[in-house]
Amino acid sequence: MSLVGVEKPLKTSAAGQYLGFSLQQLRACFHLFSAADGDSVSLEGLDDVAVHRADGSLLLEQDKSTLTGNPAADKAVDLWKTFANWATLCADKTIDPTNTDFRLFITPAKTGALVAEMSAATTAAACATVLAKIGKLVDPKKPDVGCAPQVLRFLEAKPDVCGAIIARFSLASETDALEGVRQFVRAGLPQAAVDDMTAAAIGIARDRYDRLLREGKTRKIEAVVFRRQFQAFTRKSNLAGYLSSKAPVPANELVAMVVGEAPTFVRQLQAIKASKDLLTSAVSDYLRTRSDKVEWAEEGLVVAGSFDELDGQLIRKHTLVRDEVEDVHSSLSEPERGRRVYRECSKVELPLDGQTLPSHFIAGAFNELAEGVRLGWHPSYASLFKGGSQ
User: Fold this and answer.
1) Are residues 129 and 57 in the same domain?
2) Residue 285 CA neighbour count, 13 Å, CB half
């Protein structure tokens, strides 16, 4: 097996916090999202987390979180306790080592020379070489010291069992364990809402596992059932104040057509020599925002007059940004100053009726205002587009 994700870049969450959940609960949620249809995920059964695949194979995952020390170090007691437990499961014929994948997940990112070699070993020769090195960890004169008892417990299994475990072993090591779950929930969400949605997903998984435990049942959940429940939750609760966009990303042909028709907001951007990519994203944001406004108003998700209040806030923000750019960056050309105003305005984050907006909405709302020449990007936009929409 390969070494997975060692020494990834630092993300935002400190290790050990996980939004109030245990690492095992978090990883179970990750596997519930990532497992194939027909697979199930158990918590603290065969291992910390196990994926029971539809074809009868297994993935056993042991999860380690540490702020000090290295559970992947060559002589780490926890490392060899994990391998010893896997060997015992194989020796007891609880699992078939030739039909099981073994994973050690560590956060923050850690690795070790021997564990990396085990993770890379896939051939019988490579596994035999690693087994010989493992045997040298035990001092015959001190078989009860340090990791030696756990190493010996692992080696008590037959060489073919130990070799099969090594051949199907992988190390996964991440700086931010939450990122695995975030990747499944962040699509279409503003950054401010991602952690709330992530916590909701892990909480749903945890509550289902806890209920199974109280009922005396095996703590195993079908991945498809979990995903359906999570989708139902997001539709019903709307994440306590997140306005969900139902507007699809416009087709390239539609965006090109709008650019070709050159409405006022497009000409405003052309006046500041906006790039093709900026124009494309601006048109997409504009079209999606207009669609969202109609949808939310029809569904009663937004109070009448709220869009006008938001427009007022955006106009005031635009004035402040424009004044600052004119004061601080007067040496830049007019198109450069205009592009700076647009970029700064597009970064603005404001709620609507106390609800978090999708990431495209503010930029789209600014372009709607630019269409009516209630604001603009070029320093002389008021005179350049005096007639407004044409």
Assistant:
1) yes
2) 23
